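Researcher: Structure prediction, please.
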Amino acid sequence: MNREHVISDELIEVAQISFAKGENWIAYNTIPYFLDTGDMYFFKTADEAHGFSDNNISEYDNYRVLHAYSTDELLRRFFYGENLERLFADPDANGLYNTEGNAFTDALIDHIEQQQILNNKNVSIMNEQNFDHLKDNIKYMGFGEKQHDELEAHLKEGKEAFQMTYSTEINKKAFEAVLQFRKSEKSDMYFLNSYKASLDWSNGEKKEQTFYLNYGRGVTAKEAFNLLSGRSVEKELLRKLSPEETTQFKAELKLPPEQRGLAENWEKSPTYKAWIQLDFENKDKNNNYEVKQYHENYGYDLKAAVGKYFVMEMDGGEKEKALLQSLQKGNIQAVNIQVDGEAQKMFIEANPQYKTINLYDDKMQRLNQEQRQHVSQKQSGEELKQGKEVKEDQKQEVKQDKKKSVKQSPLDDLGKPKKGRSRKKGMSV
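Model: Predicted structure follows.
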């Protein structure tokens, strides 16, 4: 950014509310010095922010887009604070200051004086806002709403860091998380930086993993449960810059927008989507399971993978949208699959590693390859209508000629192993 700005208290409050709602893309007007509520707009996606910026150019409006996760980060993106402190301490250094004064200079001086007078009050307000922000953060991450008194007590103590424990039972399995909070090095604001989650498996084994967060955002409690259960989750991840790129990034921020390369591209797309899965066979130096990533370029198409089967919820509407979103969060989802003209209740989960989905019957027994092939056999609409008639004809043939061998459908008796054939049970949820 190549010019200074002062952000009003009202705008900071709007920013906190917007960040709590996941609106982290910001379009701000670069023309005015004082940025008020009408000079900054918040969006959930980069396309929305850039679209607004491109469509609102005039003599008085020239918007620039940036990305931030919190008010603390937002304020650091503007470098007016250090300069204003220097100028106020030394009025002669201020080129705008003169004995006659002017409306702009008077407004600036009044603003700074009021900020200093109200500093103690603002600290109290910020503490209250920090409490509200953390409450919303904990709720958004899926850790409930029953720890408010404990959270408030920790904030009043003013320690550098503190932790809180959350425990529950999901699908008859004990799940626990120890939440780690730490005070910012640049302010009195606290942030939820990480949590260590643990899950008891049905075989008595316990799986543990520490999940790190970016400004209170990251893997949610339910997603952590799914990952510790061995399933995959699709997440939007923050792209990291190397030390060399970080140096270049900071240097480019001082240049006009048209001269930026890395900084311009990173601000437009600081995140990327990927499926993640814990590797229970390997751990890193921090004793965490290594995380396998399947990037967008890996080629996993969840909708296409589900579409290989006659899943009745794939209707192109709201049911389909809800189903895909649930699978993206790592859930095992109940569905109805049409087989031989009849709807059968099954359970499915995403399997990005093999670019497919895992199927379970209504008793949560995982389907073997033969059963999967039978379920995936695509039939024409006419064949689906005649499915029941075909099965009746087969029954009649058996009755008429008992000596004739008729191959049984591998799904005729799902969940009941046939003699002489072993069945491998799938992981229960």
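Model: The chain has 15 helices and 15 strands.
Researcher: Thanks, that helps.
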